[in-house]
């Protein structure tokens, strides 16, 4: 079933069934009504509410932003931008000799953004500058964690609720420790959400993985915990993998969703730009225990 709304001449399609939907079980799609339409013409207040209601918003067919500066200027209309040492815009593109997995071509496990920073952004805005080929991978995976919890078996949810994650990560932009219960609360609505960074297999070729520790249940149950939670987060209807098209703008609800990345063919033309926008008021990171700023700052 599709429910159709209109925003000043632009059609919004909200998908409510999982039968081969553009967005699996959640999310909204806004497509340009005519070629050459610019995103600046859309009312940000209404788009913001779509993201808060549907958790993921795809804006497709609009005139692409000319550069990172133009993207940042648009994102500032959504709210206060979370600034990094490099500025507002992170260029997500494979590096020749990457020192961190975000600049590699391999997969990235599910996580939430801002977990190692002083403030957690409400919105992530991803703009696709260049999309990989249809058979080259590189999709961005999103998981709707409030729905996962709502529909979880009581025994599984009870196990998840006992666990706390301790995450330690060092990279160019920070050296931090974050401590968070796996099942927490949405900072605005109070709705239960999942805050979790998936581990990777010890033999997985992965650059600069954080150090992860999970407490609250006997060690003998941790494998059961990770296996069950990852399966639930990636199940059809709760997870959606966005296959990029050049020019796409995707806005994600970082308070509710987890996200990760599929591996992609090395040297494929995959180039995203990402901007973080803070909530109003900004969310001071409840998980941060140490760090959040560049080493040596």
UniProtKB/TrEMBL annotation:
Record's protein name: TauD/TfdA family dioxygenase
Keywords per UniProt: Dioxygenase, Iron, Oxidoreductase
GO molecular function list: dioxygenase activity
Cofactors required: Fe(2+)
Organism: Streptomyces bathyalis
Domain TauD/TfdA-like: 22-275
The organism's place on the tree of life at top rank: Bacteria
Pfam families per UniProt: TauD (PF02668)
């Amino acid at each position: 079933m599709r429910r159709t709304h209109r925003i000043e001449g632009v059609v919004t399609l909200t998908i409510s069934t999982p039968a081969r939907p553009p967005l699996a079980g959640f999310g909204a799609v806004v497509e340009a009504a005519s070629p050459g339409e610019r995103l600046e013409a859309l009312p940000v207040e209404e788009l913001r509410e779509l993201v808060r209601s549907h958790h993921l918003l795809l804006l497709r067919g609009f005139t692409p932003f000319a550069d990172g500066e133009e993207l940042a200027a648009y994102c500032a209309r959504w709210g206060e931008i979370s600034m990094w040492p490099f500025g507002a815009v992170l260029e997500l593109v494979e590096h020749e000799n990457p020192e961190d997995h975000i600049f590699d071509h391999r997969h990235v496990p599910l996580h939430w953004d801002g977990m190692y920073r002083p403030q957690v952004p409400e919105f992530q805005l991803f703009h696709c500058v260049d999309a990989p080929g249809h058979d080259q991978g590189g999709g961005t995976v999103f998981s709707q964690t409030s729905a996962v919890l709502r529909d979880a078996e009581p025994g599984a949810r009870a196990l998840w609720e006992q666990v706390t994650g301790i995450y330690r990560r060092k990279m160019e932009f920070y050296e931090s420790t974050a401590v968070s219960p796996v099942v927490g609360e949405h900072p605005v609505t109070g709705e239960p959400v999942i805050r979790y960074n998936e581990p990777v297999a010890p033999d997985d070729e992965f650059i600069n993985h954080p150090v992860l520790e999970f407490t609250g249940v006997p060690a003998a149950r941790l494998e059961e915990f990770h296996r069950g939670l990852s399966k639930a987060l990636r199940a059809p209807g709760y997870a959606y993998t966005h296959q990029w098209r050049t020019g796409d703008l995707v806005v994600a609800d970082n308070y509710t969703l987890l996200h990760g990345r599929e591996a992609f063919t090395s040297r494929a033309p995959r180039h995203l730009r990402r901007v973080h926008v803070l909530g109003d008021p900004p969310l001071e990171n409840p998980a941060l225990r140490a760090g959040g700023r560049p080493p040596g700052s």
